[in-house]
Amino acid sequence: MADAPYEEKIERVRERYNKSFRNSPNSPLTAEQKLDFKGLSYFPIDEKFKIIVEMKKLDNQNEITILSSKGDERKYIQFAYIEFDLEGHKNRLTILKPSQHNYLFLPFKDKTTGNETYKGGRYVEVERLSDDKTVVDFNLAYNPLCAYDDRWNCAGIPEENILEIPLSAGQKKYDDYRSTA
Question: Domain extents for the chain?
Answer without folding.
Answer: 4-179
